[in-house]
Amino acid sequence: MEFEIPKKVQKIDEDIQRDKLKYHHKRVAVTKEFTFDAAHHLHCYEGKCKNLHGHTYRLVLTISGFVDPVGISMDFGDIKKIYKEAIESRLDHRYLNDVMPPMNTTAENMIVWIWEEFDKKLDQYQWKEKGFRLEEIVLYETPTSYATMKREWMEHDESL
């Protein structure tokens, strides 16, 4: 394989027309990852998580939508803004048992709350009316242990 330096950089309206920037009309998903640190303990649990302890949580958010005329769906910066407002400002470096609704602060409970809070912000910023929606969230409690929530599970109540 031969490598070469481009002789000319494309210029808009000369080398590529604006109406060619959007290549398709398909729904696509973008994913962004974040981390936050928090402490918690579990109630009615006989194991080491009964004790107060902390985690560096890793949150993976996947949002789908349609691309705009430039070929971008949701800008990663917009996802970051929503995350910072809805999640980080409320959970980072906090004692989760105090700042979350009354619940056992398991990853399985937390992920539903995170979904609901992020989804509210999508609505507040009118992203949902533009066709954007959460598709999946993964919350890592440790590098090898995590909970997953998918859109279809949130939309369809399969409670016992």
UniProtKB/TrEMBL annotation:
It catalyses: 7,8-dihydroneopterin 3'-triphosphate + H2O = 6-carboxy-5,6,7,8-tetrahydropterin + triphosphate + acetaldehyde + 2 H(+). Its cofactor is Zn(2+). Keywords: Lyase, Metal-binding, Zinc. Coiled coil: none annotated. Its EC number is 4.1.2.50. Pathway: Purine metabolism; 7-cyano-7-deazaguanine biosynthesis. One of its GO terms (molecular function) is metal ion binding. Gene3D superfamilies: 6-pyruvoyl tetrahydropterin synthase/QueD (3.30.479.10). It comes from the Bacteria. InterPro entries: 6-PTP_synth/QueD, 6-PTP_synth/QueD_sf. It holds the Pfam family PTPS. The keyword Manganese does not apply. Belongs to the PTPS family. QueD subfamily. NCBIfam families: queuosine_QueD. This is 6-carboxy-5,6,7,8-tetrahydropterin synthase. It comes from Fictibacillus solisalsi. The lineage of its organism: Bacteria, Bacillati, Bacillota, Bacilli, Bacillales.
